Structure formats: C-alpha cells, structure tokens
Amino acid sequence: MEEVYNGMLAIEALKKRLQTSPEIVVQLESGHLENVTFRFQEPASRKELHAFSEHKGWVLPPDYKAFLERHNGAMLFTHPRNGGGMELLSTERIFLANNAYDVLPDFAYPVGYANFQF
Questions:
Q1: How far is CA 72 from the centre of its chain?
Q2: Is 85 buried (19+), middle (13-18) or exposed (0-12) by CB count in 10 A?
C-alpha cells in the first residue's frame, strides 16, 4: 500500500508544480531541452470502476485503481506544438483499446501507450 501512496504523492507534486506554469522543461536523451504539458482527467465514477472490474472479470492493480479514483486518464509529456506524449488510459479508453487488440489474452488489458514526437 505504501507504493500507491508514494505514486500518488508524485502525481500530486507534479500537479502542484503545474499550477505555476502549464509547461515543464525536460531534457531529452539527446541533451535537447523541450517544453512539455500534462493534462489530468476528472476522477472515474464508482459506476465506471465497477463496470471495469465486471468486464471480463478484470482486476485493477491497487496503484492504477488509486490513480483512476483521482484521474480517469491523463496525457503526460505532450509536446505543445507536435503533440504525442504518453497516455494513461481512462476506463473507457481501456475498453476501446482492448477491443482493438485481439491478440491480448482475456485477462490482459492495456493501461497506456507512448507516442513521443519531439
């Protein structure tokens, strides 16, 4: 349970930092500095979380459930002009992505994807 708490502390600290500026400068592997943005969705409802666990008998890991209870999805490290970034999927987007990937076993589901365009 400690990991869940620490993970949410990191997200809340990031959100607090974003209150002063909508962009954060990150250093890429190449050494270049780029501005990136973050967008967090509203919390998932109890109904959405229940529907998620009922669908195919899926179980949410405690850390992702804690995230969804605060933010039903997020876009991270998005370039302001080029887009891309990393998406942590909402419950609805997990359903859609799972239907698109018919190669996944029934117990598995995607929770995010990355598409960096720096």
A1: 8
A2: buried
Alpha-helical runs (H) found in 1-118: 2-18, 46-54, 62-70, 91-100
* Distance (Å, whole) CA 37 – CA 25: 9
Closest by CA to 59, choosing from 7, 106, 4, 103, is 106
Q: What is the pLDDT of residues 62-114, one digit of tens each?
A: 888 899 999 999 999 999 888 889 999 999 998 888 888 778 787 888 889 89
